Every structure is written in structure tokens, then in C-alpha cells.
Amino acid sequence: MSNHYSAANLQFPGDDARLDFTDLYAFGTPGEPGRTTLIMNVNPYTTGISAMPPFLMRADYHPDGVYRISIDRDGDAQPDAAFTFTFSERRGGAQTATVRYALGDLARRPEPAGDVLVADAPVSFDGTVQPVPGGPVRLFAGVRSDPFFADADGAFHGFNWTGRDAFANRNILAVVLEVPDEMLSPDPEIGVWVTVCVRRDGDLVQVDRGGHPTINPFVNPNEVKNRYDAGQPAEDLATWLEPFTKTLQQHGGYSEEEARAAARIVLPDILRYDRRQPARYPNGRALDDDAFSARFAWLSNGKIGSQGLKPHDDLTAGFPYLGPPNRYPAG
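The structure corresponding to this sequence follows.
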């Protein structure tokens, strides 16, 4: 998995698939210099892997959820800008999305804050694509094909790759946001991560987060997964550098110095993106990046080879870039 099933025991964060953040992508908008596309995928509601029964969960965004893409402009692992997405209740098969943009102190508040860029945009549940303009940004929210590809069975069985893509013909709910670069930062180097919170008894509780793919499901042991999901990047080095260093020494045969340096590639858990360079993980992340192979090469110090799978062939050249929804079961 990437960040699918990231709670303890391969469960959904907050015991709700709608709160499960699965993947973050950041790349230059094709054919449009000066613009960046950010994609946050959630709710793997039909993403059953062959080692487990499929989950058929609610196919909407959580109306009490607060989904956020945070931007670090200066390398201090704190939000300097934030795009926050909230959703209405789904009624009569329809749901709407509202997008806010905040800077500075407002970007650090857990509650949705800042200027409303898009209000009450329709969510697509039927595969249609009608990008919603919101001033300088463009938005799509709805069901799409999951672009993540992984030989999950092989990873669970000693990295004896099977050649089977557990995420082929599966769907997620996507939030695709195209923005002008100046809204991200005047500097080309940024950091990006996602948090998912849910309102409980009047308070917002963070239940999932991440920037880098395939960290919590495979790197962290069960007893700390939920604590990791609730954490903040600014705390990552103090909290997780030593455990990650020991894990890399144990699984990769790194020296302590090498393991510490390797751990700092993913800690703080923020996806770094220098927009002067092509997006290729770990510099941003393109939809066809083999992040699953990259993670286990990192974990094993190069001892685990490529899984040998190809990107999904349903990616599109134009917005929103993710393939149309799959029928489930496929066929």
C-alpha cells in the first residue's frame, strides 16, 4: 500500500474509509508553465487487495472531515499556506465541495480558515469531468481510478514479487487542484503534506496524515501507527528519527550514520518539490512514479529489487489526469 489502510492492523484511520488518505502527488501542470497540480486521494472504498477481502464502504467524502494540503515555504516543517477542503452531507446522491486558501497564522489553524476559492462545487460520482474554476485555481473532486500500483501480495510474502498489481481496477475519491505557482510560494522549493481531521464532540481530531508514500503501513509497527497518523511534521525528527534509524539498520544493514541520513530523506514526512526540476519522486511525485519499489529499495539499502509493475494505462493527458472510475468487480 501507499498510505491505504494506514491505521493499526491495516484498518482505516478513525475506523472510516472516508478519512483514509491514500496518496499525494505534486507535479508541474502539463503544457502550462507557472502552474502546479496537487492531487490528494482518499477513501479506497473499493480497493480490496487480494490478501484481504474488498471493503465496500460509503463512496463519499466525510461531511465532518477537514481535508487539507499544507505548504511549507521555508523549510521549518510548519504550514505557511494551506488549501482546505470540506464537503456537505451527501443528499439525493449529490455532494458539494468548498475550498479555502489560507496564509500565515491562518494556515496553521485546525479549523477551516482563509479565503473561499470555490464554494459548493459538485462532486462527481458518475465519472463525468467538469473542472470547476475558482478564480486562479481549477478543481475536480470525485471518483477516479486509483493510480497507485503495487505488488502488495509480494510485499507481504518476503518480497517475492508475484507480478500482480493489487490496485489495478480500483477506485479512490480524488481532489485535484491546479494552482498558479505564486499561491504556493515565490520560492520554487516547497514542501507539501496532507492531513485529515474529523469533528468529534465539537473538536477536530487528526486521524491521518502524510507526504511520502508507503511510510506508515510498512515502516511503522502496529503499536505506533495511530500515534504517527495524529502527529505533525514539525515533531517528526524529535519523535521518529531514532526509531526510523534503528529500523533502517535492522532491515537494510545500514551503518548508524547511513541510516540516520536515509531516515532524513522521509523525515519530516513532507514531500519536497523543487519546481525547477522535473517531478520525479522524491522530488515531488508524478502519477507514474514507482513509489512502491522506491520505498523498499530505501528500506533495504538497495537489496530489494523493483517490483516490475508498470503504471496504470488509464491515466489521461488532460485534467484531472486520473483515469475514469473502474467498474467493481472489474469486468
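The mean pLDDT is 94.
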